[in-house]
Amino acid sequence: MELETRDHYLKSLREVEGCLYDFSYDEKELQGLIQDIDKQELLVPVIGNFSVGKSSLINEFLGENSLRVGITPETSIATELHYSSVDRVEAYAEEEIFKDINVNEEEELKNNKYIKMYLNNKRIKDIEPLVIVDMPGFNSSVDLHNDAILNYIEKGSYFIVLISSDEGTISRNLLLELENIKRLRCDFSIVLSKTNLKSEEDIKLIKQNLEDEIEYLGYDKGIIGVGRGGKEVFEEILKSINPEDIFRKKFKDRIVLFLMTTCDLLDMQIKCIQQTRETNEREIVKLREEVENIQEEEERVILELKGSVDKEVNDVLAEIENSIYSNIDSIIKDRSGIEIESIIKNILIKKGVEYNEKINFKFREEFNGSNRTRYSKSSKEQINKYMDLFITFLSTFENVSKVQKIIKLVKLYKKSIVSYFYDIVDKKNTNKNIKNEIINNLIPQINNLMKSRLKEYFEESIDKIVEERAIIYKDKVNEKISLIENIISNSNEVNINKEIEKYDLLKNNIEIILNKI
Hints:
Layout: H1 4-19, H2 27-39, E1 42-48, H3 54-62, E2 78-83, E3 88-92, E4 98-100, H4 106-110, E5 114-119, H5 122-126, E6 130-134, H6 143-155, E7 158-164, H7 172-183, E8 187-193, H8 200-214, E9 223-225, H9 231-240, H10 243-274, H11 277-306, H12 309-326, H13 328-334, H14 338-369, H15 377-427, H16 431-489, H17 496-516
Parallel strand pairs: 1-6, 1-7, 2-5, 7-8, 8-9
Antiparallel strand pairs: 2-6, 3-4, 3-5
Helix pairs in contact: 1-2, 1-10, 1-17, 2-10, 3-9, 6-15, 7-14, 10-15, 10-16, 10-17, 11-14, 11-16, 12-14, 12-16, 14-15, 14-16, 15-16
């Protein structure tokens, strides 16, 4: 299926590339944009607990039994469905390294992160650029599969959530994952499967219960029931997904930011051509002072933020402790350690996103509004025109990238925490004893394990985010210095009127493209 938004963006950016062939601009960003847009896939993971009917529903949609059903949690693996005129399967143990495999060989499947199944199936071709992903169950105890789930929560564009009527409720770990999906600004539809196994009255009650459970997430699409003949339901959900809107959300801000930045550089070029050599030299001195001021401001903001890290860490640990205590009965009932892992992961993602926003707010306040910022009015106005847009754009990517960092953090703690939990369950016969052990021993152990690493994590986030924001300011100022120096060196050869006319025309062309994005 053609994607008009992708084609429009690529055409626009290639027009810009043609206009800028002899002008100094951020070529790396432009080429990165073109490549990312060209390669972007819109993944639609189908998620839910083990054995809720995900593979069966997808097989019914495909009209063929391409996905295995009734397999064990240990052998289930994330499977992307792509169109090809030749059927084949690629297995990925690493992100970019694959090998062709026999999908029926369980031993070959076990150690891979995910597989891409290419099928000569018209229904897969018809929904392009959407790519269905059959996911392992959220209640799997296999580390590799839980990593795959987190990976697709990071990469997914839209999620189809299956809940079995046998369950009748949303498991806590699945509910926590829905919270994570919402935090990463993705949307989802909820499907109640196996409705043919219950009475109409029971299904009505289950749907109402599910809607009550997720009301706080702002979900308003209703619960879609499916029993036998789920192909039509699945098709309707896929048709309701708007790939054009998803694509715009992914790339529009980034393209606008690039074009606005480029127009600002052209404005600077025109201004400097009109000024005398002496004026331009004085401007360079001021701009170099600004770079030094930015560095001082950056160091001060980092120091101030790091002064509150201990409090941030204690707040995270306190929330983990309270959540474990509040859900202690379900943790004991679960007895696998998955509940504790889900609680820790969910709180880390939530707190990570909140802390990103806190750093961004502090950065805006100090660099844009503080009386201590000493940048010239003209430079500040030019930079601030697109700075908020940049922060919004970059924050989204940082929130998404935190998922992979959370995987690493949870892995560091999981083995010790879960193995200790197993010991508690094995050694203590009564739930009361297990509860006391969790409160008196396991929670303090979690605090001890996580405290120092969390402090490092927050401090690294401060360094990275503030430095990246400050680099944008510095880069813009340094770009101006380079432009002025170039103008000074070529001032004797330049026909001022012709140069201004050239850059005015170039800026006008880019603004026309910008207004059409």
